[in-house]
Design brief:
Elements lengths: L1 E4 L6 H9 L11 E5 L15 H13 L11 E7 L9 H15 L12 E7 L2 E7 L13 H15 L18 H9 L6 H13 L5 H10 L3 E6 L5 E7 L13 E2 H4 L5 H5 L25 H22 L3 H21 L2 H17 L12 H13 L6 H27 L3 H34 L3 H14 L4 H6 L3 H13 L4 H10 L9 H12 L39
Antiparallel strand pairs: 1-3, 2-4, 3-5, 4-5, 6-7, 7-8
Length: 575
């Protein structure tokens, strides 16, 4: 159940006309009163003799009793209380009780207070009511409404179990502001998928991903096609900014600007500046080793490999660090990486990555202040993703995307666990939803590279396959039976062969890959292990690339068939 307090107004009768009217799209059905401060309150919806003006005069009587100089300019209080789509349809009696509990909790009409504000609750749809009140009590005083929105939310959480309603995850006041109903209706009329506020928020977050200065951030906003206004102090220092969509106009045809702080709490200019590096020396992080590449992959593929290394280091920080500021910074920087990845990945993965970034945005913000000096590796990775440009969905680009998404699934789940431990319910749920979208994106990205690796694994000589199976049993005695039975075993066998050919100890690599991070949340342990091995051993992410370096005998003839790769028709891997 969602209570939403609307802006205070100055015309009681105007709001009454709206509540009892047909709605903007004839969506108001059978408007009528379900409860009020007085049982004898006239109901223009059910009593043909009652008028809007009668109801208005009754509600405004305490306001009009004051001297004109003491009357508040905006005296109309308005809240809507809406049930979730999956909730049962409540009766008028149920909604009446909910209305009384809401006005009591918010301070409009505390229980037992006979001189409280006057109010009325109108129902014009199955799933919600509107409550209108006047902000002058019967004794002429103003009500105490401090934190009434938070109190309304707390009461809604108590109401839900009493009526068997969907339990909404409690918030903590750090969420971005939702579009108003007026903004949503305007977006619908203009044929937009989302309200301008939401579109701007996403674009601003993309512009901030990996940015290293205010000038770079503002240039990205302008390059994205936004109208940008800045506020400068007399000293010449930049103080703030506003953005607008070129085609979002007011009635006077003026662009409608939004300050960054009104889009989300962490998008004000001071909060964005906190992300920039405070020194030129990268901080020490767990597992920050990044070996030199023996080959020269494309810029997008290299950026994805860099991001996989940074994500692994961030994952270890979340697991091992007792510094909440450092952990919060890693989570916030993960949001930047997701924004950058969604912006630069191939079309077939872009929608799911965009949804993952959109969901994780809520997880990237909490009351724990992020100490961004601890997260510059991830922020540099986000910057590399942006500057490397769009990635192709095939070859090393596509395989690199699958590798980094695989790592980000674990990172977002670690973020969910971190938030859950601290009772950050909304953030934990948002991180879990983001992980779901990342799993879907992985399925789309991993199809081709896994098919190539599987084919190579199937062509390995039986004796060598038995050798690698023995390696798995020695390194992972408790997981071996599961790994060897999975469809991903063939691809893992090819990876073990590549690692051995490159001079690594496959058993040691495999044991390390399994020990350094849990595998319980993996849908396919073999796939997770092969990406960890290919990252740790710095093997090409795309299996076919190994063919360029396959061994040749002294007579110059190609190596045996057990080392050759013949790609087949791609199949969707299980994740």
């Amino acid at each position: 159940m969602i209570p939403s307090i609307h802006k205070h107004g100055s015309e009681t009768v105007g709001l009454i006309r709206y509540l009892y009217g047909p709605g903007t799209k004839e969506e108001h059905i059978d408007p009528h009163l379900v409860a009020a401060f007085d049982p004898l309150t006239p109901d223009p919806g059910r009593d043909p003799r009652a008028t809007y003006q009668q109801l208005q005069r009754l509600l405004d009587q305490p306001v009009n009793a004051l001297p004109a100089s003491r009357r508040p300019e905006k005296h109309v209080w308005h809240i809507s209380v809406r049930a979730s789509p999956e909730d049962p349809v409540l009766s008028d009696e149920d909604w009446a009780a909910i209305a009384r509990r809401t006005v009591a909790a918010t301070g409009i009409a505390p229980d037992g207070d006979e001189r409280a504000c006057r109010w009325a609750a109108v129902r014009h749809a199955d799933d919600h009511i509107h409550i209108i009140a006047t902000l002058v009590r019967d004794d002429g005083r103003r009500p105490r409404l401090h934190n009434e929105a938070r109190r309304a939310q707390a009461e809604a959480r108590r109401i839900e179990p009493d009526y068997g309603l969907h339990r909404v995850t409690p918030g903590d006041g750090t969420a971005a502001k939702r579009p108003t109903s007026a903004e949503r209706h305007k977006a619908e009329r203009q044929g937009r998928d989302r309200a301008p506020r939401e579109e701007l928020r996403e674009t601003v977050r993309h512009a901030a991903a990996g940015a290293t200065s205010a000038d770079e951030f503002l240039d990205r906003l302008k390059n994205a096609g936004l109208l940008v206004r800045t506020r400068v102090l007399p000293s010449g220092d930049l103080q703030g900014y506003k953005v607008a969509l070129p085609d979002d106009r007011s009635k006077n045809n003026a662009p409608i600007y939004y300050a960054g702080s009104t889009l989300a709490p962490d998008l004000s200019l001071p909060r964005i500046r906190e992300r920039f590096a405070t020194d030129s020396t990268p901080p020490a992080t767990f597992g920050s080793e990044r070996p030199e590449r023996p080959t020269s992959p494309s810029a997008p593929a290299a950026a994805r490999r860099t991001t996989a290394h940074a994500a692994w280091a961030a994952l270890l920080v979340l697991d091992r660090s007792g510094d909440d500021g450092a952990a919060a910074a890693q989570i916030a920087a993960t949001g930047e990486v997701l924004d950058a990845l969604a912006r630069t990945s191939a079309l077939h993965t872009r929608n799911q990555l965009r949804q993952a970034a959109w969901e994780f945005e809520r997880a990237s913000r909490s009351h724990t202040r992020a100490e961004f000096r601890h997260a510059q590796d991830l922020r540099r990775a986000a910057r590399e993703l942006v500057h490397s440009g769009p990635a192709l969905g095939r070859g090393e680009d596509g395989a690199g995307t699958a590798m980094v998404i695989d790592m980000l699934v674990f990172l977002t789940m670690a973020a969910a666990h971190w938030h859950a431990q601290r009772q950050h319910a909304q953030q934990a749920e948002a991180a879990r939803r983001a992980a779901g979208h990342l799993r879907a994106a992985y399925q789309q990205a991993a199809g081709e590279p896994l098919t190539v690796l599987r084919e190579r694994g199937r062509r390995i000589a039986p004796s060598l396959r038995r050798h690698h199976a023995t390696t798995v049993r020695a390194a992972l005695p408790e997981l071996a039976d599961t790994v060897l039975a999975e469809p991903g075993w063939d691809a893992l066998a090819a990876t073990l062969a590549d690692a051995e050919r490159a001079g690594h100890n496959p058993q040691a690599l495999l044991a390390e890959a399994a020990a350094r991070q849990e595998l319980d949340t993996a849908d396919s342990i073999s796939e997770v292990l092969l990406w960890r091995l290919r990252r740790t051993a710095d093997l090409p992410a795309y299996g076919a690339a190994a063919e360029a370096h396959r061994a040749k005998p002294a007579n110059g003839q190609p190596a045996s068939a057990r080392q050759m790769s013949t790609p087949s028709t791609p199949r969707t891997p299980r994740r």
